[in-house]
Amino acid sequence: MEKVIKAYGYIRISTDNQDFERQKVLIKSHCKKHNYELIDIIGQQVSGKKEDTESIQSLRSLTKNDCDIIVVTEISRLSRTDKVTYTINLLSDLIEEKQINVVFTDNPEKIYDTRLNEYELIQIIFEASGAAKERNKITYRMKTGMDAKFTLDPNAFRGSIVPIGFKVINNDKYNEEDGKQYSKKLLVPDETKIPIVELIFNSIIKGTTLHDVAKLLNESGYITSKGKRFRSSSVGDIVKNQLYNGKMKRNNHIYDLPFKIIDDKLFQLANTKLTENQLFKDKGNKNFNQLKGIFVCPCGKNMMLKRSLDYYVYTCVTKANKYRHNGKCNNKGIDADILTELVWNVMSLSLEERRYRENNDKRIKEIKYTIDLNLSKISSLENEISELKKQNEILTNRIANLNPESESLLSGLIKVYDEREGSIKEKEEYISNLQNQNRKSESEMNKILNSSKEQFFNNIKPSERAKLFKTYLKSVSYYDVTQYKGFIHIIFQNEYTRIVAVKKYPRPFYSLLPDHFKFNIDTRSITYPHLNNKPKSDRSLLYSFGSSTVSFEKMEKSFYDLYTEWKLDIKLPERSKIKKVRAENNLKAKMKYKKL
Ligand SMILES: [Zn+2]
Known about the structure:
- The chain is an alpha+beta fold.
- It folds into four domains: 5-135, Resolvase, N-terminal catalytic domain (Rossmann fold), CATH 3.40.50; 166-279, Alpha-Beta Complex (Hect, E3 ligase catalytic domain fold), CATH 3.90.1750.20; 303-351 and 460-580, no CATH class; 354-450.
- Helices cover 44% and strands 17% of the residues.
- The protein is elongated, with a radius of gyration of 37 Å.
- The structure holds zinc ion.
């Protein structure tokens, strides 16, 4: 027959009732988990700052006949934190003299059962002196107070709102005497409401928008867990809630519930679909912002879509709310259909350009250089860290061999130790930053490497276009020159840059300038290279190069190509409404004129 392990719990005095109860729960559940027979718990609740000498005496008087192990929640509970040497003596007395094992529930794997070795001694000094870890301990204490119940029952219920698809029942294991460590209430699936949850997930998977799912639920007479009408956001929250996939998140810890209303595959599918739908809201609608986050105004603010009857115009956000943005900016807007068509055309034309590919190579070289630089920084930081660790190891040995009486020297050494630990932590954080940077760089590099493989279709959906815009483009801006003309400045991910000259009136053109033309943001002019001298004879190779800077007007006069070679063909959707309104306005104006 297996020998029953007898245990005593020890709680150090506490003025806080909740903390006292919490220590009790932790000790009980530890004994239960390890099949210890818990004989008794020593320690009582005492008010004031008095030391509970009575309990310490009872602890010291225990013998091997009374118990095999003593269970305490943390080392610092063994005695006051300013009595480090006392703690060590007490502990070594228990394990060495009396041969009673000791375990702390915050480190349940480690059972103190033989002579303390140097390493353990140091650990205890740090733990017992508290200082360095006090902060961690406090948060640990706060967490475990709540966690205890969730560890016993992952579906323990606290709170007031029951999520849709669930109901709350009483916990059979809970009772007023020894069942208090259990939660009073449990969260379980409500069979009658599960079809609503399934309806939501299945609709999202089918591609129904959040808005339409909410509408469907409201029309079917369902209400939210808060007793309200469904909205897009409440439906979205349900699809994202891991509770439906059998996971409960508490204090950064995920507990597995004994049931799953939605299985892994469906849950994953619905969430993928949801992210896609949110990225490309109003998928069916041609007029959603395909250049979101890419199209920026020269003033630095974003450009947003503004409706104008049956078409949309991109305009600077400062124009929507001049107060919030400290005044309007002066840059003119541009027709959204024209702009997206132009950018799309420029993109598909540019990807095959030699210079675009050269820029790719150049950018990849730059990225590789930064990655290598970061790697070498990381390796030197790692050397520094290992050196600091070595020094602290030596220090640890010094502390271990220190005369127990030299408390002041001890605290000095601990300070040095802590400082080194701090510096190690800082360096480790820096390394993780560099590693993050490298991950980003690698993903940018992958984007560039994969981008040239992409196929372009003429009948591509707006949502897919938006995806490709994001893949290839860093930014797009429209710089007006007058109300009717300006430049679109397109910067690709690899820094390759294109300029489109736009003239809306009276003889419109949208022309993609050659990629060796440069745009000057400040003067809104164009600089282009050209030959200065023509060769004097056919044999002569005396070319010399120069460059000229021209305004929009001058460029128009100099380049016939704007209307021919460089012109982009843009197809625009039919705009019957605006045509009708304009025709009506013209008619009204004519009538007025006639009357006069
Ligand atoms: Zn602006």
